[in-house]
Amino acid sequence: MPKFIGILTAGGDSPGLNATIRAVGKSAIGTYGMQVIGFRDGFRGLMANRIIRLDEIALSGILTIGGTLLGTSRDKPHKMPIGGKMLDMTEAMIDTYHKHHLDALVCIGGGGTQKNALRLAQKGLNIITLPKTIDNDVGMTDMTFGFDTAMSIATEAIDRLHSTAHSHHRIVVVGIMGHNAGWLALGAGIAGGANVILIPELPYDIKLVADAIRQRSRAGKNFSIVAVAEGARTMDDVARWQEVKQTVEAARNKTQKREAKLELAELEEQQVDNTLRLSKALEQLTGLESRVTILGYLQRGGTPSAADRLLATRLGTACSSMINEGIFGVMLAFQGEQVVPVPLEEVVGQRKVIPPNHPWLETARLVGISLGA
Ligand code: F6P
Fold first, then answer.
1. Given this structure, which CATH class describes domain 4-145+304-347?
2. Which secondary structure element, helix H or strand E, spans residue 131, and what is its range?
3. 327 CA distance to ligand 1 centroid (A)?
4. What is the Rg, in whole angstroms, of the alpha carbon atoms belonging to the chain?
5. N or C: which end of the chain has fewer CB within 10 A?
6. Would 4-145+304-347 and 151-300 be classified into the same CATH topology?
């Protein structure tokens, strides 16, 4: 009897998703004689039984295409917005799994997807996951696919911003994605020769950033590129946030708690435009003109890099081998040069941020990049 497998992609899209779907599918069908279907739009498609048959024709010609042919969403099985309500749709998903007599379900996604996949595994489904995200913040794996492409896009953007910053003697503040991790900003910042790199792992002092820029001016370099991760915060903002967070936890009554929570929400709201605020503050502190470029979703679009295609293909083919061997409840991680299965329980909740002793930080400092701390 051939094995039947389902695939879904969940969370934010990322270059390399189609390459991964193709690798799982081609090896599952070609090497192991399995049959493959895809579910549309992440866990929502699994809930609503919306499928695409993934045969050899459907899997052909998709290696280099960005996004995901399956579609994606940030829906969670246990909290899905339906008809204006948040419902637990886990049972509907289990029904779909059994309706198709699936032997395995492959969930491709980032940290949130690992959590959701674990929930389904705990309900008895044969789940195997693959780590995807441009943020590179999934625990237990050295690398997620999508990261290399996004880092290259951000690097090229920094390269291009150099000439305009140089011509106008300006500061250019480049906003780089990455959620609460600084991998993209630090990697692209070093590769692109940014003069300042600000990351969430190292809260920054704006005065130190301004000092670094003024020092460059004094040395005759009248332009500066500041690569700032979307999650980067000033030391003052972090201190205030921690203070209010403690107030929420220590609140003695409902009114106190509500007020502190409102303030916390306001502080989080203010962070939305922190890149613009940083640019304005730098103009004031340095007397130089400053401009902002937020790279946003450009970093997630288009053709995956060679490194991401290779990683996607290695993870995807390893995935069908594991299914063939009956190994489930795991995420396939890339460790050293090997693809290894890691129990989902060990992955969930392990956001991978840049550790203080990471060699990239030392490299940045040695090449004279200010980290604002
Ligand atoms: O996780 C990938 C990512 O692009 C983050 O870098 C960013 O913070 C987030 O997704 C944006 O999410 P959304 O696609 O929901 O706007």
1. alpha beta
2. strand 127-131
3. 30
4. 23
5. N
6. yes
359-366 and 183-192 helices, crossing angle to 10°? 30
Report the atom number in ligand 1 closest to the C-alpha of 231: 8
* Known active-site residue 88: no
149-161 confidence digits (pLDDT tens): 999 999 999 999 9
Residue tagged active-site, from 13, 75, 103, 135: 135
Question: Which CATH superfamily includes the segment(s) 151-300?
Answer: Phosphofructokinase domain (3.40.50.460)
Helix/strand/coil for 199: coil
Q: Tell me if 200 CB under 6 Å of ligand 1.
A: no
Q: Which two tokens stand for residue 285?
A: 């502190």
For ligand 1, whether the C-beta of 132 sits within 6 Å is no
Residue matched to tokens 């962070």: 271
Measured CA to CA, the distance from residue 231 to residue 247 in angstroms comes to 22
**What is the per-residue pLDDT for 271?**
87
Residue 1 has pLDDT above 90, yes or no: no
Phi, psi of 268, rounded to the nearest 5 degrees: -65, -40
Q: Three-class SS of residue 225? A: strand
Which protein residue has the closest C-alpha to ligand 1 atom 12? 12
State the chain's mean pLDDT as an integer: 96
Quickly list DSSP for 326-366.
T--SEEEEEETTEEEEEEHHHHTT------TT-HHHHHHHH
Cα 102 from chain centroid (whole Å): 29
Q: What is the DSSP string of 10-57?
A: -SS--TTHHHHHHHHHHHHHHTT--EEEEETTTHHHHHHT-EEE--TT
pLDDT level of residue 2 (50, 70, 90 thresholds): confident
Substitution site in 179, 275, 297, 352 for ligand 1 pocket (most atoms within 8 Å of beta carbon): 179
Per-domain residue ranges of the chain: 4-145+304-347, 151-300
- The tens digit of pLDDT for each residue in 54-93 reads 999 999 999 999 999 999 999 999 999 999 999 999 999 9
Ligand 1 centre distance from Cα of residue 34 (Å): 33
Task: Output the pTM of the full model.
Answer: 0.95
